Amino acid sequence: MFEVGTMRIERGIFLAPMEDVSEQPFRRLCRRFGADLVYTEFVSSEGLIREAARTQAKIVLAEDEHPVGIQLYGNRHAALVEATHLAVSQGPDLIDINFGCPVKKIACKSGAGSGLLREPELLLSLTRSVVEASPLPVTVKTRLGWDEKSIIIVDLARRLEDLGVKALTLHARTRSQMFKGEAAWEWIGKVKRAVSIPVIGNGDVKEPADVARMFAQTGCDAVMIGRAAIGNPWIFQRARALLQTGVDPGPPSLEARIEVYLGLLDEELARKDEPRAVREMRKHLSGYLRGAPNVSHLRAALMAEETRRGVVEKIEQFLEWRRRRPEEEWRAAAVQPTFEPTPAVEVPEAVS
Ligand SMILES: Cc1cc2nc3c(=O)[nH]c(=O)nc-3n(C[C@H](O)[C@H](O)[C@H](O)COP(=O)(O)O)c2cc1C
């Protein structure tokens, strides 16, 4: 049972913090599709206190996305404390600290994220500072250790619990593994048995069945899903259905998925300029088309689009092409529509 602050969540299924992915529209979407708790992407404590507008925008929360955690990273006490105050003022349900990011710039150059797994005493004292600064529950997300020769997670988990950390998310890889190899779920079970705070298991949950498997194999209190939720937000409700009824209802129709995709695009458009919103949505696109027959030309055409109009036109063309054919024909591997580039909109010259 995930009991943190006022939250009481039985077999929680959470959305992972993901840079440039777990933005507000996507978090809200995942909540609508059944994620029990969502996290912001990681937020630099240094950026936040320097009043960098783009960093500050990352901690703005919507009313309908709760429960939500704001994730911070950094390696300086004063910056993390000040950032904690700023994050708390946005009214999240918890503050999460990132000690897992393996990216060189963060882990090696800045000595933050998973870099702190090489300096556990500093990691612990930074955590203590955040716990003392925060009236809200503080949780930690980390990895097994720096490399396979220095797996420190069981001892670290106990010490984090002693400091007052209210839950621990474990991405069951070392820093050296980055995203390679397989997540070693057995460590999630070992940590769960070593502490009494809730443990959130993370790493390589790809399908709803993996959620059930991770609960069964590790005894964790919640499962966190990252990459598999991109372009696939209904994984949360499918996994919930599987846990409750034993049956995975499967993904929605392509038409329904496209509708969700365009809804997300429109929310991004309300926040960003059009070319940027359309470009950034490309990382979600493949997921929405996954498994649909004969969409490779459509996917390629959409990847080249820079405008909402172009995206909608291509999708309409594709669906129209399908509607005009009997199902066995549009499912056949040999057929596929081709697409012309969408012509640029002609802007009339200004008349002076
Ligand atoms: C694009 C991307 C961005 C990520 N950004 C963050 C982040 O900001 N904070 C964090 O704690 N982990 C981050 N992660 C790691 C994920 O939260 C998660 O631990 C990892 O992807 C393993 O889970 P998965 O196999 O379900 O994807 C990121 C992962 C990806 C793929």
Please provide a written account of the structure.
There is one protein chain. By secondary structure, this protein is of the alpha/beta class. It has two domains: 2-245, Alpha-Beta Barrel (TIM Barrel), CATH 3.20.20.70; 254-331, no CATH class. 43% of the residues lie in helices and 13% in strands. The protein has an eight-stranded parallel beta sheet with strand order 3-10-9-8-7-6-5-4. Strands 1-2 form a two-stranded antiparallel ribbon. Helix 9 (208-218) links the parallel strand 9 (199-202) and strand 10 (222-225). It binds flavin mononucleotide.
* Strand segment count: 10
CATH superfamily of the largest domain: Aldolase class I
* Biggest beta sheet summary: 8 strands, parallel
Mean pLDDT: 94
Give me the strand/helix succession.
EEEHEHHEHEHHEHEHEHEHHHHHHH
Radius of gyration: 22 Å
Could you give the order of strands across the largest sheet? 3-10-9-8-7-6-5-4
Oligomer: single chain
The secondary-structure class comes to alpha/beta
The percentage of residues in β strands lies in 5-15%
